[in-house]
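Take a minute with the sequence and fold tokens given here and flag any structure token that looks odd. Thanks in advance.
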Amino acid sequence: MELDTTDGQTRPRGSRGRIVMLVDNGVRNDSRVQKSARSAAEAGWDVILFGVSPTREIQSWKIGDAEVRLVPKPSPLSHRRQDLRGPRLRNPLAYRTPQIAAYRQQAVKAWRADLRFRAAAAKAQSQAQGPGKGSASGSAARLIVPKVTAKAMGKWVALRSGMMRRTKRKRAKFDAPIDRVITNVWQTVMGERAWRQMLPYLWDYELAFAKHIDDLKPDLIHAHDFRMLGVGARAAVRGRAAGYPVKLVWDAHEFVPGLHSHHERWLPGHVAWEKEHAVFADAVITVSPSLADLLVEGHGLKETPYVVLNAPVSHPDPEEEAAADPTPDLREMCGIGPDVPLLAFCGGINPVRGVETMIEGLKLMPDVHVALVSTPPGKPFPATAKILKLVEELGVEDRVHVLPFVPHWQVPEFLSTANAAVSPLLHLPNHELALSNKFFEYSQARLPLVVSDIKTMAEMVNRTGQGEVFKAQDTEDYVRAVKAVLADPERYRAAYDKPGLLEKWTWEAQAEVLDTIYSRLLPGTEAAPRAARPAAAAEKAAPAPALRPSGQESGV
């Protein structure tokens, strides 16, 4: 490969420009990030994707022509200040730290163990000397006071340790009156800068990644999700100040105010972080028109974000495809024939995904089987055990099949022999706002869909006619929807025959949108040489969609 070093940085000669992508995870389980990096590199950009290393060492590998670098992220600022100060003002008797409490508890246990040993040793010595040679009672009497003292000390230590634990639990939520007063003061005085006090751990990301980004002198930074927005914005500002016209693209995966809040400062802190840095983005993309509208409203964006859907690839990387096992047969793995009604669910199992409704529905559909493609490599999801317990309680073990994940490009083909696919998500703000990648994978498998009535997905299914909608967590309504789909599956499959529908629901089509955004932000790169793609993929590639704001019709 020829290299260009004209700006002091080594990059492939003929590259359209250098793009640094940022994500706050380990990359391997984030298909959107992987697809973004690979497709940008295929389009001729020099792509370096930074993620968080699970070890103290930098890890690197390739995704196609894109380079992945996982950087260690020490987290000393993740420790809460009140844990370092201790609870003396709120509970003077509580131990200052868990470490002190553990030390005191263990020391009292050691003391009492030593007293038991001394009593046993005195008794053993008396027995060895014989009657009249020693006084066991005298030795025991000498230990009475120490034993009483040690027992009392044990109760005192237990009391103080319990106070420490209760105070720590109470303080963890930041919901005490004094905590709320402090939070309100910070928000009033500091405004968008209040995250510095509420969530100082965000500095750990900045400090871990800043030098790595600056050393690369990127032309464009693509920051995935809210944490890396701030890291990317600060790097872009530093680059601009140093004379490099760095552009920033913010890829908003989620609606932050709709996320689960771990404590009373978690949401306002992250919202403040996002607000402070959103103004530095030269372009914003997101996963749905609904979320795009909320971002405009929440951040006063001058331009409506563009939508890049979480669609699956239609043409996997040839090297990855060659290295992977052939796509398995779903029905063979379930041990059932072609005439058995089979419902498919693909994705991790957790309490907000509504899988319980699918299992409960089996009691009302005695001939139906369910395939849960939900087991990752290594340790299964914790909620899987709860589902398996429900399966056992309902006596449907022979009709529920828990299967391992397959590579993401194999999902549509793998699921295609099912009779229908189910998305039973519960009502949560971020569920309401987007079409999940599983929705598009089910669609590429041309499966009739049975989906809960979360807003965006239900509206799409009703608009296209590709399935039935049921009330979330309503087992009877779910069964109604399943029976309707199983009674006339071809009626719902026909929705996929609409010209251009499935072509738009591919990552290749979404990658064209991304590439157009990059080119718009970096004038002069449009005519640069494009990276060669495999001939077969080039022939089958979906037509490029016109770049359009999210407010226009998207996907159908």
The longest helix spans residues 136-172. The chain has 23 helices and 16 strands. The mean pLDDT is 86.
